[in-house]
Amino acid sequence: MVPIFFVLQRKTSFPLVFHSICTIFEFLSKILTFEKTQINLVFSSLIRIFAVMNQFKRFFVWLSRIHRCRGFGIQSPTDYSFVRYVINEHWPYYGYEQLEGNDWLTNKLGRLYFRLANWRQPTMMLVDDYQRYLQAGCNKTTFAPIINKVELARVTIDDKDGWEVLLSKCDNQSVIVVEGLWRNWERWHEIEADERTAITFDLYYCGIVFFDKTRYKHNYKINF
Is 154 found in the same domain as 194? Predict the structure, then answer.
């Protein structure tokens, strides 16, 4: 059997063979480019679909709590004022424009923490991922890796050890934010039922816990 190289060498000129090879490679390159473009389009479509689904989820969460907007139905003047003028205050604070985060939830929670710090005016807090929001809300706050007393603190819903450490440093004036309720509702209900907590506010994306034992225990669900 005669090798193809010798057949081509005898019957075809080298420039023609080179041109044919280049044509084949160009064709393959176009196919690969087309496939890459299609893959990119698929990923872009999936991202848009997830974004739309996330917007629908946020809308349904809001709709399911629409009757709990802006303190409606809250009998306690203190709790009503807290919900109306801290949790759901829509007035554009001076520091918002300089505190934009990378996504809507970071912005939403960061602005809440800004208002909480502005309301609570803590002198010392633990170092926190949302520190720039908290510091903007209260310039006098000092941040440290260890604190002796909780004035205002944040912990994630799954961090049970962190919760217990903070709880041991709480008094009647302490406030703890528990972030990520939707990830572990069972754990949040345990916190609500805990005899050491007094007033709790379920905001879906986070919870706010008060420890003033001079008040009757109450658990609120708020449209945030």
Answer: yes
Mean pLDDT value of segment 136-141: 95
| Listed residue (107, 127, 131, 100) closest to 117, CA to CA | 131
Structure tokens at 109: 């929670």
Q: Give dist(CA 95, CA 114) in Å, integer.
A: 9
Token representation of residue 137:
């809300």
Decide if pLDDT at 5 tops 50.
no
58 versus 171: the higher-pLDDT residue is 171
Residue 89 dihedral angles phi and psi, to the nearest 5° = -70, 125
CA dist., res. 204 & res. 165, Å (int)? 23
Tokens representing residue 68 in the block:
């709990």
Tokens of 107: 């912005």
pTM: 0.72
Rounded to an integer, the average pLDDT of 120-133 is 96
DSSP string covering 183-212: G-HHHHHHHHH-TT--EEEE-SSEEEEE--
Q: Looking at the 3D structure of the chain, how many domains does it have?
A: 2
151 neighbors 120 (Cβ within 8 angstroms): yes
In a domain, 62, yes or no: no
Residue 3 above 70 pLDDT?
no
Tokens of 93: 């604070």
Q: Which domain holds residue 41?
A: 4-53
- The SS3 call for residue 179 is strand
What whole-number distance in Å separates Cα of residue 126 and Cα of residue 166?
10
Q: Let me know if residue 60 belongs to a domain.
A: no
